[in-house]
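Below is the record:
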Amino acid sequence: MPMDTRSWNQDGGRPRLTSGLWDHGAAMRSPDVPSTTAATISAAGRSTLHRPNRTSRENALSNSPDQRRLIHRLAVFRRLVPLRIVLLGAAGSVLIALGAVGAAGVLNHDPLLADSGLSWVRFGHGRDLASGLLYLGLGLLVWAWVRLGREVRIERVGTHGVLATIAGWLLPLLFTPPLFSRDAYSYLAQGNLAAHGIDPYQMGPAALPGPLADNVSWVWQNTPAPYGPLFILVSMLVVMVTGQHLILGVLLMRLVMVLGLVLLCWALPKLARLLGGRPERALWLAAANPLMLVHLVGGPHNDLLMVGLLAAGVLVCLQGRHVWGVALITMAAAMKATAVIALPFMVWVWAARLHGSPQSRFIRAASASLVVSLGVFATCTLVTGVDLGWIGALETSSLIVNWLSVPTAVAQIAELIGGWFIDLSLPSLLALTRMLGMVAFFFVAVWQWWKARHGGLEAAVYRATITLFALALLSPATLPWYFSWPLALGAVLNWPGAATAAAVCGSVWLLLVTFPSGDTALYSWFYLLGALAVSVLAAVSLVRPDPLRLSSRSKVADTASLPPG
């Protein structure tokens, strides 16, 4: 039997097997080894490769001024614009936009497709094809986001690169039907009520029949608007411009909401620098997050303008312009009441910059904040021509029942287990657990606010972030995009690697737990299991490229690490 000897080139290429023998010549003629490379065979049967003086000539060339200048320019361009990642995510956004035509929250009667012969994409196999395109686009967008995160982690992409990436990914999403939600139609219907002199805090969209009300989900047909006066003003102006044209109304509403993303991209880098964080990582984690782009932009949702105003207000407060900062945060609360959570924390920031005893500084800062807030909110209310009926309308969110809300999950589990022994009523359990949830949130909020009194700027933002996260978890009703509230502020802080990976996992999972049409997927257990697997894979891929070892480069690296014998 012939001797089995092996040859291993320096770059890790595999030797070739010929007639039961490892062919040394084939190994030395591997594409990884130049043909001019000389080889000698040692007594042990291993090859030792000697490269000629060509390397020195290449080093001399690479050290030339022109070569160094070119390499530097390429590195700068790569840092400014990660072109491959931009194109990968943009391709995903385009596929999402194409699939959304048939699979998203489409109109009951679409004038663009009804007479074009393309209406088949919204039914049967056509809808399945559209859904496949949309989910393929989601996969590409998530993949691009994780790749961008790896570049940001090793500081190869800076702030300008992340901003350019966000712009490239955002553009196709501006022209889609509502994604993963039908709330945009509710916004237009509520604005339509206000435009016709009907109080949207007293009546639901069904009070004014027509194309706008017909496309509102049946759940919200007779419920009043739970949003602040500034948002009612915005939606009313949108309807006054677009009339009963639903497609133009959705597009204009989305463009207005995108102003919140612009504010977020302006505020996050500055906040990160103030608090010792990394601007590019804050932008990547919050503004470039597919949860933010697909749900809040694609939705579109008024949460986007709310978090943009909130981040801008917090930044202005931290910079020392407290009156303007409080005014911006109040405007955010006039969009959606959630933003009011940040105001008490900004009182500590303001008080720390005043003179006098701790008690007098707090009283002056709190009084000034209250006066500014009441003035701004009263102005928004008077200009819109509504009253405070939105406060009572906040209870309408209790119609949403899903287990993303911790109190709701507890009630559902209690009914499931306790129902084996006694007859339990889910509505009664929900009333109890939701009340306990709000009590728990009250104690969390007060404790976090009190802990922030001596911690400075970072403590105020950190504690406000925890409180917003607690609100998202303990609210009577929770939807996936509610977790953008703490993300908008928390992204500016210093995140350890494990927390960043957990944020990636949670963001991707929340992105997927709603179907593109807006229906919840939280009770499709096999689907949720697949979504969890994808989310974990995305989180692992952030810190370990190619965890499934699918790339040929990974296989070559494994091969190169083996001993040559």
